[in-house]
Amino acid sequence: MTMRLAAAELVESREILPGQWLQAYHAPTIASSSRAGQFIHVRTGDFSGMVLRRPFSVNTADVGTGIITIHFRVIGRGTEWFTRLRPSDEIDLLGPLGRPFEVDPRSRHLLLIAGGLGMAGVRMLADEAIRDGRQVTLLFGAASSREVYPSSLLPDEVEYVVATDDGSLGHHGFVTDLVPAYEAWADQAFACGPAGMLGALARQAEGRRGRLGVAKLGRKRGGGRTDPVGSPAARRKAFLQVSMEQNMGCAVGACLGCVVMSTTGVPQRVCREGPVFAAEELVWEGAWS
Amino acid sequence: MKAKRRVVTSAARPAGAKRQPLARRSRPTTAAPESRPGVEIRSAPASRPTDASDASRAAAGDLDREIDLSVDLGRGLVLPNPILVASGTFGYGVEYGDVVDIDRLGAICCKGTTLKPRIGNPTPRVTETPGGMLNSIGLQNPGVDAVIEKYARAWAGWKVPVIVNVAGESVRDYVEVTRRLEGVPGIAGIELNISCPNVGQGGLQFAIDAGAAAEVTAAVRRATDLPLLVKLSPNVADIRPIARAIADAGADALTAINTLSGIAVAPGRTKPLLGNIYGGLSGPAVKPVALRIVYEAAQVVTIPVVAIGGVTELADVLDFLAVGAIAVQVGTAIFADPTLPVRLVDELAAECRRVGVTSHLDLVGTALPKRAGTPSAKGVEYRP
Description:
The complex is a heterodimer. Chain A is α/β, with parallel strands linked by helices.
C-alpha cells in the first residue's frame, strides 16, 4: 500500500440523517487500493482559516466505478465546509492511510459492532466479508431512532440489529448489551465507536474464551511468540479488533498527535500503526497516569 | 544599494561572480564537513535547469541565469536551498517519503530527541484553531540511541541534510544527547530545542532567560563540532538579549520561532481540551509574531537566522527574508500540503529570476532599518 495525493471529484452529496452526510467521490486510485478500516485525509480549502486536513474512514469503495464514499456528522467548521461542496467540486485527498482490519481466513461468522458514526469505520468490512462469502451480523447503537443508520444503505446479506439509548428503536440500551448473545456465534468481532463503547467491548472480549470454555489445543504457532503491536498477525489472531479515533495532525505518522497507549508502554500512532488495533494491544484505562 | 548587513560568507562575493565553494569559517573545527554526508558543498539544485518547474521557467525572463539558493549556516553546513522542514512536522523524514521528494528539500529538522525515551503527553494532543493549530505532543520520542540506530543509516544515504532537534531537561541532558550524535554519519547538524512549551521539566525555562540560554548553548558548543542552531521561544518579553547571549555563547545560527503557548476549551466547556492543558500554537496565525521576533533578532546578531512561523506560500518566505532571515522552515502547512516545501524551492528560484538576482540572499534584510551599524541603545522598539 502506497499512499498518494489525489484529486477527487464530488459525485453525490446527501444528508442521510439529521446532521449526517454521505458523500461519494470519484477517486479510482483510492477505490482500488483501500481496504476496510483504512482512511483518507482530506484538505479543507486553503489556509485562510482551517490549516488541518480532516480524516475520514473509507466508508465504501467500488473498484468498478472508482467511487468511494465518506460518512460524517457536522461537528465543526471543517465538516460544515464539506457539506457546502457541490457535484463536480474537487477535493485534495491523501490516502489510503493506516492499517486495515485483518480477517482470519478461517473466520466464517463476523460480528461488526458500531456506535453512531462508528458505522463509517466498519461499513466497508461488511462489503468485503460478504464478497468473501462470510456471514455478517452488524450490531448498531445510537442515541435514538432518529440517528439509526438506514438499513437500505447496507447489503441485504447483513443481519442488522439495532439498539437505542432511549428505546425508540430496537433494543432499549447500549449496543454492548447485545454482544453476549453473539459471543458464541462470532469467530471474530470488529468494532468502531466512542472510546467508552470500545473499552466495554474490550473488557467483554477478555473473558470470552473462559466463558465459552474453548480449550486451546495444540502447540502455539511460533512457540508462543507474541506478535509486535500493530502487526497484521496480531490483529488477525485477535477476537476483537477496534478502529480507534484521535484528533489528527499529519495522518502519516510524523507529528505523533494521534496516539493511543499500548500494553507495551509505547504510544501507538492511530494513523500509522492503527487505526485498527487488536483490542488486547491497547491500554483502556489510566493509560497516561 | 540593498542593506546587506546580514552578511553571510556566501553573500559577500562580487556581484555577478560565479559562486565558488565557500571558504571555511575561521572557527576551529575538527570534523571536516566532507565527512558528513549531506553537507558537502555543491551547487544548488535550482541551478540545474531541470529542477525548476516548467511554469516557473516560463515566467523567468532569462532562462540561462544561474540561480544559487544555497545557504551557509556555519561550520560547513551549507544547505542546497533555504527551505527546511520544521521539527515535529516531518517526523524523521521517512514518513512523507511516498508523496514528497525529500532530496529536494534544503534540510530536514527531525522530531525533538531526548536522552531517554519519552512517551509524551496524554491525548488529545492536537486541535485546530483559527488559522492555526495547538499541539502538545510532549516530546514523544524513542530516545537518542534508538533514533540513531533506526534512522542514521538512512539519513547518511540521503542527499538532504538532516538536522537533529535536541531537547532535554538539564544542561547535562543536552550535552549527553549531543555527544552521542557527534560523529554519527548522516547527522548534518543540531538544532537545540530550548523552547518546547509542552514539557514540564526543561525546555522552556532555558529559552526565557538569557543566562540559562547562554549556559546550555555554551555547554553544547564545547561538546560538539557539529553545526549548532538554537531555536528561540516567542514566549519572552524581549528576544534581543537572549538572541545575543546565544550567539555569543557559540551558536552557529538561530531558529525563530518555536510555538506560542496557548490553550483551547473542550466541547461542553468543563475543562481545557488538550490532555496537557497547554499547547503550542503554530500556523499562519503566528506569522506576525514570528516576523517581529526575526526582525528583532536579526538586528542584534551576526549569525544567520532561520525563520519559522506560519509559512504557507512564497510571499511568506519573501517576508521572512525581508526581515533578515536567510532561510525558512515550513511546519504546520505540511500537514495540509505536504508538497509545499518543494514547490517553494522552485517558486523562490523563479522569484529570483523575476527580480533579477542570482541568489535569494540578495532579498535578505530589505525591510530592516536602512542605516547599517549597531542598533541604538534603545534598539527596535516594540509597542504592543
